[in-house]
Structures are given as structure tokens and as C-alpha cells.
Amino acid sequence: MKDRQDIRDLSRKEIDEKKWNAVCRRSGLPYGQTWWLDIVAEGWHGLVEGDYEAVMPYWVKKAGVVRYIMQPPLTQQLGVFGETKDEAAFYEKLPCRSFVMQTNEKNEAGKYSREARRNRVLSLTERYETIARGYSENARRNIRKAKSNDVRVEEGKDEKKNFQFYQQENDHVANERETRLLVNHIVKEGKGKWIVARSGEGEVLSEVLLVDSGEGRLVYLIAATSGTGKRMGASAAVVDWIVRKYAGSGRELDFEGSMSAGVDRFYAGFGAEERTYHEVARCHPKWIGGVKRALEGWIRKFR
Q1: Interhelix angle 234-246/137-148, nearest 10 degrees
Q2: Of 21, 130, 131, 298, which one's alpha carbon is 20 to 30 angstroms from that of 62?
Q3: What is the pLDDT of residue 290?
Q4: Considering only CA atoms, which of 82, 23, 29 is closest in space to residue 214?
Q5: In sequence order, what are the residues at sequence separation of 6 or more whose Cβ sits closer than 8 angstroms to the Cβ of residue 214?
Q6: Phi first, then psi: what are they for 271, rounded to 5°?
Q7: Domains in the chain, start-ordered, CATH in brackets?
Q8: Residues 192, 214 contacting (CB under 8 angstroms)
Q9: How many CB atoms lie within 10 A of CB 60?
Q10: With DSSP H G I counted as helix, E B as strand and the rest as coil, what are the percentages for the chain, rounded to 5?
């Protein structure tokens, strides 16, 4: 096992942003980058191996006198980013004995793995016609339905109204403050954009905030569809628009997956392959089990 002295525990202020972000960007995921963590996990820390050959962010919370580590909201995958021969050494270096976290798809399961979780990713390397041949019949039917209902897809231009629609179609927006700050930053800094489906009369039917990681991956971050939009196949039209626009680009469309069979079937219907990441947990002592269950409930809100 690697000597844990090779891994430094750094506060946010001590982290070299340029080196840290260079490592995290290579994963193709936006979640480990400093700008993302600064919004969703105020006061986060990072474990750094050597000269930033590998890094792992973590976020400490408190319940009374108990300190524990949990997954930040709106953040599907963290874990270890970069090249290391001993991922386990990072977990042993964590300052809290109790944690519930989610790794990224390049990490091994490890001894703390509690559950394999499912993501869906669609390669956009081929031309549109080739990718579309992999659509399921249900996906094709919904796209035809959208066309027959004169559903039109375009880039959203009104950020305020886009977010209002997202709120309207979700009974409860968990961590609304962080969600709003993250969305505002993504749009303002050109790191992503809303893709919106409208009826022929201009009514918003469906939308998604598409995040560009900057390293070849487009993340289907937050989405909403009205009841009318569902009946008109609007969400399928949004995905098909994205595929048409980026087909042949060499990028990947990351749907963020779901453990819901129905949602997973929708993503798989466009030919997206399954990728696995893991929920990891450690709980000491046994009486802290109640805290652990609370953490698990928190994480389920963002699946």
C-alpha cells in the first residue's frame, strides 16, 4: 500500500487550481473542477498525491459534534481523479471515519463499495444517421409524435424563464440556492446552455440544461417536461436535437443515468451504453448509523 504521507490533505485555499483542474478535466466530468465545487460544496478540501498526479475532493459536514463526509448536491461523481496505483490510500487518509460518497466511472469498486450505480453515455463520434439507427422503436415513435405535433427545439435565450419552468415542473427543487447559483454560473460563463422544446404556439414543453465539460463530454444536467410535453414526445425531440447538432463531433452525451427503470429505459432508447460508478460508505462507530441513514436519504434526492 502507498505511504499515506505521499498524499497531502489541503484546504481549498492551499490547492493549486491550475494543476487540480487539469487532472479533473481529463476525466471528462465537470464535477471535480474547482468552479463546480466552490458552488455546491462550500469549504471543501482536497487530497493530493505527489505533484497532482491524482486528487480526491471531499466535503465535511457536521451533525452536532459528529463530523462526516458526504456527496455534495448536484454532483453525481467524485472519487479519485488522475493516475494512482492505490485508490484505497485516499480513503484511509480522509479525516472523518464516517462517509457516504460516490466515485467516478474510472474508479475501482474497492472495499467500501456499497452499491454499483448506473449511468448512461451516448457516443457522438458517428454521423447522425448511424447513431439514429441505434434508436429504439419507442424513441423513434416519440420523435415522430413530436414532429406531428409541430414541436420545435431551440437554444433557450431567457435564463430566468428557463429556470422558472424547471421549478414549475418539479414540485420540490432540492438545494434550490445551490441549483440556482450553479445554473447561473454555467450559463453566464458559457459552460452550458438550455435546450428548449416548444409547441407551434410557443409554449415551453420540455427543456434541459446541457453542460459542456470542455473535455469532450456534454452532461444532461437538469431537465423538466410538462404533462403536455410528455404527451407530445417533447423530451425525445430535445435529445434528438442534441444528437443531430453534435453527431460527428467525437463528444459523448452523458445522461447522468438513473436507477429508475423507466428513466433508464428512456436514455437507453437512444443507444446510450451503461457505465458504472459506485456508492461508497464507511460508518464508525455503530451508533452513528442514524447519521449514515440520513446521508443516504440526502444522496437519493440527487439520483
Answers
A1: 100
A2: 21
A3: 57
A4: 29
A5: 25, 30, 191
A6: 90, 10
A7: 4-117+277-300 (3.40.630), 125-250 (3.40.630.30)
A8: no
A9: 16
A10: 35, 25, 35
Q: pTM of the entire structure?
A: 0.89
Q: 449514515: which residue's cell? A: 292
In the block, residue with C-alpha cell 455503530: 286
On whether the CB atoms of residues 82 and 232 are closer than 8 A, the answer is no
> Cell 485508490 identifies what position?
87
Tell me the C-alpha distance between 146 and 230, whole Å.
10
Residue ranges for the chain with pLDDT beneath 50: 1, 287, 302-303
| Chain position carrying cell 436507477 | 259
Residues 6+ apart with CB under 8 A from 200: 149, 150, 151, 152
Amino acid occupying residue 38: D
- For 105, the 3-state DSSP assignment is coil
For 240-291, the DSSP string reads HHHHHHHTTSS-EEE----SSHHHHHHHHTTTPEEEEEEEEEE--SGGGHHH
C-alpha triplet 109, 12, 10: angle, nearest 5°:
65
Three-class SS string for 1-13? CCCHHHEEEEEHH
For 204, residues 6+ apart whose C-beta sits below 8 A from its C-beta are: 161, 165, 196, 197, 198, 226, 229
Q: Is 143 helix (H, G, I), strand (E, B) or coil?
A: helix
Nine cell digits for residue 209: 440544461
Q: Which three cell numbers stand for residue 186?
A: 454555467
DSSP H stretches of helix in the chain:
17-25, 34-40, 88-93, 128-132, 137-148, 159-168, 176-188, 227-231, 234-246, 261-268, 289-300
Question: How many angstroms separate the CA atoms of 92 and 221, rounded?
Answer: 31
pLDDT of residue 1: 47
Closest listed residue to residue 103, CA positions, set 95, 112, 94: 112
